[in-house]
Amino acid sequence: MMKSLQILLLAFLLLGFPPFPSANAATPAAAAVDNQPDTAIALKNYQKQLDTIKQQVSKAHTDNQLSKLFIATQALAIDLEKLVTDLQPEQEKLRAQLEVLGPEPAPGAMAETAAVAKQRNVLDSSKAQLDDAVKRSQAIRANAIALGQQINDLRRVAFKTQLALNTGSILSSDFWGAEEQPPEEDLNRFSDFNQQMLQIWETSWQEEWRYGTVGLLGLAVVIWSLGRYSVERFLAWLCIRYLPDGRLRRSFMALATAMITLFAVTLALNLIELTFSRVQEFSPVVHDFANGVKQLGVFCALIAGLGRAYLSLNRPSWRLAHMENAVASGMRYFPPLLAALALAFGSIEQINNVTGASLKTTVLGNGLVSTLMALVLLAIPLRARHIRHRLVRNGEHVEKRSTLNGVANLLILLFSVVILLSLLIGYVAFARFLVYQLIWIALVLMAFYFLVLFTTDLCAAVFSPHTTCGRALKKSLNFKDRHLEQLTIIFTAISKCSLLLLMIVALLNGSFGTTTPNSLIEKIIAILSGEGLKRLNIVPSNLLNAVIILVIGIYVLRVTQRWLSHELLPKTISDIGIRASLVTLFSNVGYVLIILITLATLGIQWNNLAWIVSALSVGIGFGLQEIVKNFISGLILLTERPVKVGDMIGIGGVEGDVRRINVRATEIQLSDRSTMIVPNSQLISQNVRNATMGNAQGVVTIALTFPVNIDPELVRNILLEAYREYAAILETPAPYVRFSQLGPEGIILSVTGYVASPRMVGATKSDLLFNILKMLRAQQVNLSKPQEVVFMKQRAKELIDEEEHSS
Q: What is the DSSP string of 84-125?
């Protein structure tokens, strides 16, 4: 080899040509060396541009800013790709020159000349610098592409949250531009994803996997169709055979229909995933897509199952909702159609998410999804209205639509129109938000409706004295019927409160296709631990959630007030005053909690309310002192209960019954049926006579003046007989007569008896006076002369006061 090289060099010399270019000649190696400083400067500038873009991305808040930064990254990637393309010919030339020189001589072999060694070193140095420049260019380009993808992801995420973002009307050419000229990167990502899916599909049908694939897919179809139908029939038979007559059968079967549909779809989807995952392990992209589709399929199955349970086409007599059969039959295709659309277009959105599709493609997909879903939702109330009108025209009986049903249809109609208008004017993000919020709210409310009916019917059946379970409880625990009734009310309330908490958390924190029972429980714990109150982050969705929680909270609070006042407390507490105090206290605490939860839903942090508290402190110091004083006094009245609802009190020279203790004042009904409003602070700071606080009995005392010559024993017996014969006078304590005074003016005898309430004293005293005068005349016993009565009036009043005080 060395000899051949020496011969070649000798030939070059004989021909008069130098074997290598001279140092002064412009060789590719020299040119590459000369271009190295320019390339290094260019790479340094490109890196600075990339760093600048990264800093601007962290500060960008609008889609316009992110869009400009995304274009900048694309331009930077193109420039770097051009630089790499320009450097590649230089690399090829240097590589060819090194190949001409051949490999470096091995140790011990004939050494090459100094000129060859020098030229080799120059070429190696130039090639190393060029290789490093190419690697740096490719690295910066890869970082620029990755940054562009991150910006694109941020734009897609911002698209879902920035509801006021106008991306163009669905009728504009810009909207359909993504379909006519889809971005090349999107096509590449979709092509890669499609290749992965096709590879999994083709591999699953190879000879070694074919029969297992057919078996698993067939089993999934059987479970979804025949298995679901058979289980529903079996549960219906169990309901008729073992459950007691009543609403429990209907509510259980409705809930079971929804759950069977849910479980059948879940099992079928798991079998489908197993069919293809057993062949080869999924890539991360395919794995994320499969998980997303499974979650989406579960919720779509819940839509179909709840719709089937609500319509109850197979068993119209078991239908929970009041609906004509014609209306139910006309609505039968909407739940599966809505579920199928949600699954199909939700899968498209999953593909966009896992492949990192551009914002333009994402907007196109979301616009199509929102349009079709809005049209289906719009058709639901219109179809029901058309069927009802047709029944009326045919003279058939149509039940009056409930207020709740009418409000639901109106809201669906209104939401659908707003969604379509938003799409027409270009607010695709807002339309998508409304579509998914409407589906999610309807899904949660329907599930809550069936669960509440089932738990209510279950508690009523378990604790009913007419069922086997209720009779067993009575016998084993020695319960009475009223005890079972109380247990029914308490357990029903606990179940409803638990379900209501789940519903509120699902409405406020859930999203269609992503929320699971575990996530709901985690969010409940987060709310109860106060995590939602640690930051201020008011966004449009939080505003909508705050309105929902405020309306639901006020409605639930009022329903609970009625339930406490008319169901639970009358069966557990006999004292009407305690019941009223508990209801009032519960109402006050409830309104405070509603306000706090509403603020927490908005994401308001408590330290952000410090300025409000400071302003209120100043206002309290100047103008709200009396209001605060009365409010605190009202709380004291409700807790200590020196005065409660139903008490007969006297204050400021008037006497009446306490009817209501409000936050600021107390209402007292007087004997003339008028109402006196007394500030709560007066009931705390002034002397108040409570006639029913220590003893609810009334004292009836009558003092009469007789001549000195009467028979005291006879008169005493007459008075006692009159009291004992009167039905309102209590036997215990027994009535008695006292000899109050003996003097020249006459004898004063006072008779005292007790009635059940101080409110009966006036009427009882009047009736007794009539009877006593009648009995005295029958026994020919006369009273003292009028002048003696007037003379002794003051003294008799004092005696009466002493008697009442002693009693």
A: HHHHHHHHHHHHHHHHHH-SPPPTTSPPPPHHHHHHHHHHHH
Residues 6+ apart with CB under 8 A from 432: 160, 366, 369, 370
Write down the pLDDT at residue 785.
63
pLDDT digits (tens, 9 = 90+) for 447-457: 888 888 899 88
3-state secondary structure 145-179: HHHHHHHHHHHHHHHHHCCCCCCCCCCCCCCCHHH
User: What angle do helix axes 184-204 and 207-222 make, rounded to 10 degrees?
Assistant: 100
Domains of the chain (ranges plus CATH)? Answer: 2-161 (1.20.58), 184-454 (no CATH), 463-604 (no CATH), 622-690 (2.30.30.60), 698-806 (3.30.70.100)
pLDDT tens profile 466-482 = 888 888 888 888 888 87
Q: Which two tokens stand for residue 153?
A: 């992801």
Distance CA 205, CA 198 (A): 11
How do beta strands 665-670 and 648-651 pair?
unpaired
Contact 148, 52 (CB under 8 A): no
Q: For 652-693, where are the alpha helices, taking DSSP H only?
A: 680-685
**Per-residue DSSP letters for 699-720?**
EEEEEEEE-TTS-HHHHHHHHH
Rg, Å, the chain Cα set: 45
CB 296 within 8 A of CB 351: no
Residues 6+ apart with CB under 8 A from 439: 303, 338, 342, 373, 512
Q: Distance between CA atoms of 443 and 258, rounded to whole angstroms?
A: 12
Token pair 């958390």: residue:
505
Give the pLDDT confidence of 547-590 residue by residue, as tens digits: 777 888 888 888 888 887 777 777 777 666 567 667 776 777 78
pLDDT tens column, 707-736: 877 888 888 888 888 888 888 888 888 888
Q: Are 670 and 627 in contact (CB under 8 A)?
A: no
Using a 10 angstrom Cβ sphere, with 0-12 exposed, 13-18 middle and 19 or more buried, the burial of residue 312 is buried
Task: Write the CB contacts of 67 (distance below 8 Å, at least 6 apart in sequence).
Answer: 155, 359
Work out the number of other CB atoms within 10 angstroms of the CB of residue 182. 16
The percentage of the chain sitting over the pLDDT mark of 70, rounded to a whole number, equals 74
Please give the mean pLDDT across all residues of the chain.
75
By the 8 A CB rule, do 87 and 133 touch? yes
Tell me how far the alpha carbon of residue 120 is from its chain's centroid. 74
More confident position, 6 or 744:
744
Element containing residue 651 per DSSP (H, E): strand 648-651
**646 close to 686: Cβ distance less than 8 angstroms:** no
Lowest-confidence region among 627-631, 633-637, 658-662: 627-631
- From CA 369, how far away is CA 436, in angstroms rounded? 10
Residue 56 has which token pair? 């601007």
Dihedral (CA of 45, 47, 48, 52) sign: positive
Do residues 705 and 789 lie in contact, with contact meaning Cβ atoms separated by under 8 Å? yes
Question: Could you tell me the CA-to-CA distances from 34 to 22, 83, 95, 129, 721 in Å, in that order?
Answer: 16, 16, 17, 11, 136
Count the alpha carbons within 13 Å of 85 in the hemisphere toward its beta carbon. Answer: 6
Per the listing, tokens 């694109």 go with 152
